[in-house]
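From the pipeline queue, job 12 of 40. The input is one protein chain; the requested action is below.

Action: predict structure.
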Amino acid sequence: MKWDDGLNKIFEIQENIKDIHPFIEKLFPVTVAENNKIFIFEPELKEKKYVFVKEANAPLEIPRGARSAFLLECYKNKVSCVITSEAFDNPFGYVAIFHEFMHCMQYELCEIRIKNNLKIFQKAILEKNFNWELDYPFLYNNLEFENAYSSFLKSVYDKNFEDISKNRKLLRKILNYEDFEYMVIQEWKEGFARFIENKISERLGFKENRYGSVKPFTRISFYVGGEGYIKFLTAIEPDLAVEIEKLFYKMMSQQ
């Protein structure tokens, strides 16, 4: 198909970066969205190419520039990286694909098990709010939160253990339990993917992605805070970089 070259380049990029982290050694399905249709491709490992397996109507509107990972009902509810084709037009598009592969790996390993233990997730399921991760009314503009999270971001990049611990305890104090759960699950999920993304970017000669690091804070700010916290925690306990379920609970512990 017309995207064969772009898809197969994923194998070339992987060969150059697979030593960065064990999770990069696994490739996932890639779904290309175009004209309200989706085209699903699976990796053929022996031949090192992606093969077309299914065409279907898009389950929702997928705008140009989309980079995401989610379950596809038409694909037996398997998880896939979902993109639009311009991701193949420049090398950074491939960095984004591997970012989404990290979400696929999180899902396969432990994401649902973690979420099932979260009050915020249980409540969302009861309310049939399936967009809760994007729609959650977090108090980003609360001055007390802004000051505490700004201080936390500074402490992780200063690698100041005492201040990190103090700031995490402060965040737990000023946030209600569901808000704290929301913050941590976003830091874990998006922060880990950003953590791997920036390692790949460094290898390929791109600038570090710090988008979300300045006020006003948004959900994207948890990508930055999560990455910084994960870098700090994995420097102390390297196994946490692979034992990502344990990593989540470490992040929840306010240490």
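Job complete. The longest helix spans residues 177-204.
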